[in-house]
Structures are given as C-alpha cells and as structure tokens.
Design a protein that fits this description.
alpha/beta; Urease, subunit C, domain 1; TIM Barrel; 2 domains; five-stranded mixed β-sheet; 15 helices; 17 strands; 35% helix; globular; hydrolase; Cytosine deaminase
Length: 430
C-alpha cells in the first residue's frame, strides 16, 4: 500500500468494500473529514493537492463498533488470574480484585490503556459495562464520564450499569442504579442466567428502565444449562409491558443447546419483542463447558445464523480483555470478526460472508444508537480501516497488523501501548 502527495484530503484507489455479492472494487474520495464520493475501481481521478492511497485491491472497512466490553475489568490478569478458568473462578477473582484495587486511579489507568488499544486497531465507538454494585457505582461512573469527554472525537463511548441477579432483586438498589445511569446518560443492565427468581429480577430491571426512560442491555443466559431460559422471560416481559426503549441481550449461550423447537420458539419471541442480540464468541469459547481435565464439547456461542434469519439484529463484540473472564484479547474488532467467522462457521455460503462484516460496524452502531453510523456511504464520516488483504481468505489468515487506520479523513499514527506501561499499577516485577 503506497501513499503519495500528502494533504488533508485522500483518494483511496483500487480498494474493495463489503457488498451484497462479495467485495467489489471501489475508489473512495475523502474530503473535509467525510466520504465525498465512491465509484468503481479506477473511476475516480486524483484531484490537485490530495493524498493518493493505492490500496492495491486491499479491503476497505468502516471503523469498527464494539458493542459489549468491560473496560473497568480490563488487564487485571497479571495481578488476579482465574484460578481454574471457570466462570465461577472468574467471578470470584474479579470480586476480590475489585474490593482490593478498584479505586478511581486504578480504573482510569486501565480504561485509558484499553482505549488506546481499541483506537490503534481502528475502533470508533465502544459500549462498556461497568460493575455498579455500591460503592463501585460511585467510583467507576465518574471515571467513565471523564474518559468519555477526553476521548470524544476519537472513540464515542457509552456505558451500561452491570449488577448481579441478587442485586436485581433489590428494588431499592435497582432504583439507585437507574438514577446513576440517568445522571450519566447510560443504560441499565444486569446479568441473569440460571436463577429461580430470574423472572422477578428481569421484571425489576424492565420496570426501572421504563420508569426512568432508559435503554436495557443485559447479560442473558451465559450458561451451558438448558434450564437457563432468561432470554425467553425477557422477551415475554418486553412484549407484555410494551417497553419502548432499546433492548440488547448479550451472550444468550444456552439458546444454542436447547431442543430445536424450543430454540425456534424463543427466537421467534425475541424477534417479536424487537430485542437485539450481541454475541461474544471469544470469551464464551474460553469460559463455557470448561471442566477440569476435560476437553470442551461445545463452543458456547449462540445461534447466530438462526437469530439473523429471524430478523434479529445480531452483533459481534469483544467482551472481556485480559481479565479472569477472558485471559486474552486486545479490543481488536478485526480479531473478533476473524474468530467469529471461524467459530460460528460464517464463511459459507461465501456470497453471504460479506454481510457479516456489518456485525462489527453498522448493526451495533444502529443497535446502540451511536452518532457514528459505521457505514461506507457518501456523506458518512471518513473513518476507515484499510488492509492489505484482498480476499476474506487473506484477511482472516493474518492479523493485519499493518492496517491503515483513517479517522476524520486523516491517517492516524496511533500505536498500541506497551504492556509494560501497566507494570507499576499491576505490581509486575521483572
């Protein structure tokens, strides 16, 4: 990929963009921070004074949208690892680390590091869940508000209050969280899976969100137990109450192991309720069906194809990063897309593969209501990622570490931060 004639405007020549029938060739002109024109490959001629970027048939994507992350948990593994790799091991480890270490300075430093990673990889919008059981709500939300202001124009940020199922049963606590969320312009969330009183917990969250005019973003059925039917309960509650806000359900793992007729009935109900779904394939591949000394027998990923076929808005996202829930990851949405295609067998039929690229861009942007729309269209923000790969086979075979990130029509020089930057914070010694 070559860049010549530096200027404030760019002409990307001989690129390829995701389309309805694959990756057609395209030229893209960027001017004044916007996409000014898109034409077939070779159709746009250089204008005086603009930078010419020869993509050499490389794929051009909109900058990414990461709909489900945990910026407050990120990068704590060096000081608090998961003892056995299990979900309960993660929960216990995170709780201990939060109590011991999550003051404002600690949370802010790790959030900043994570945002630098995401920005360098080409992400333009992120929604993070924030552990919000008191007193943490009084610590993490003000930190988030500062980060949102500081990163405005680089990464658009949203946040969701996360609480456990026991907290969701406490109506006074749910009310406190709803007020916190309202104050900071976030959404209300919670984690509900196998739980005798799941219906009651969901009802409390839906009622509070409706009363305060909030959107909902819940962790649902992050379990390998077929008794975990919270997604169905959520859909029923949304339909019964006529809840009018946006509703997003994350994980939905147990849906994948229900009997076909049960899964179909749930999916139909989800579609009727207008609930969007975000899948976190890398994290759930790591956590689900983990048993000591045994090989896992299922992937932990929800029914991506079936949900999408039913008209449900389906997104793919990072989830946790270098914490006890997922020991790896770097908030790289190209990695998320690559691994999701592999894990979910989204590569066939080939003519439909390009449509899944919207699951890390336009679909999550619309689902969350971000100002950034993550589309390649005339008039859209000139926020792009250009890679050397010419085909999906090339794209998914390498990490594309030499990608070119363009923001507001300018090639950015951001580099990934060094993990050593966190050594003092995490107590790492050489």
């Amino acid at each position: 990929m070559t860049i010549a004639t530096p200027s404030t405007d760019i002409l990307i020549r001989k690129g390829r963009i995701p389309g309805r029938s694959g990756f057609p060739g395209a030229d893209i002109r960027l001017a004044d921070g916007r996409i000014a024109a898109i034409g077939p490959s070779g159709s746009l001629m250089p204008a005086g004074g603009e930078t010419v970027l020869d993509a050499d048939d490389g794929i051009v994507l909109p900058a990414f949208v990461d709909l489900h992350t945990h910026l407050d948990k990120g990068h704590i593994t060096p000081r608090r690892s998961n003892p056995d790799g299990s979900f309960m091991g993660a929960l216990t480890a995170v709780t201990a680390d939060r109590v011991a270490n999550w003051n404002a300075a600690d949370v802010e430093a790790r959030m900043e590091f994570a945002l630098r990673c995401a920005y360098a990889h080409g992400t333009a919008a992120i929604r993070t869940h924030l552990d919000s059981a008191p007193p943490q709500n009084g610590i993490s939300w003000p930190v988030f508000a500062r980060k949102r202001e500081e990163w405005a124009g680089r990464v658009e940020l949203q946040a969701t209050a996360l609480c456990g199922p026991d907290h969701a049963l406490d109506t006074a606590l749910v009310e406190e969280l709803a007020r916190t969320v309202k104050t900071y312009g976030g959404s209300l969330g919670g984690a509900i899976s196998v739980f005798d009183r799941a219906g009651e917990a969901i009802a409390n969250l839906v009622e509070a969100a409706g009363r305060h005019g909030l959107d909902l973003d819940l962790h649902i059925d992050e379990s390998g137990d077929t008794a975990s039917r919270s997604l169905s309960l959520l859909a029923d509650r949304i339909i019964e109450t006529g809840f009018s806000g946006r509703v997003l359900a994350g994980h939905c793992c147990s849906l994948a192991i229900l009997a076909r007729e049960d899964a179909k009935a749930t999916i139909d109900r989800v579609a009727e309720a207008g609930i969007a779904v975000v899948s976190l394939p890398m994290c759930n591949l790591y956590l689900q069906d983990r048993r000591a000394e045994e090989t896992p027998r299922w992937r932990g990923v929800t029914l991506l194809r079936e949900l999408k076929a039913a008209g449900v808005a389906v997104s793919l996202a990072s989830d946790n990063t270098r914490d006890p829930f997922y020991a790896y990851g770097d908030l790289d949405m190209l990695e998320v897309l690559r691994e999701s295609v592999r894990i979910g067998h989204l590569d066939h039929p080939e003519e439909k593969l390009a449509d899944w690229f919207s699951a890390v861009a336009a679909v999550p942007a619309s689902t969350a209501g971000f100002a950034y729309g993550a589309t390649l269209a005339v008039g859209a923000p000139a926020d792009l990622v250009v890679v050397r790969a010419r085909t999906p086979g090339e794209l998914f075979s390498r990490p594309q570490s030499d990608r070119t990130v363009i923001r507001a029509g300018t090639v950015v020089a951001a580099r990934l931060p060094d993990y050593r930057d966190l050594d003092t914070l995490l107590g790492v010694t050489s």
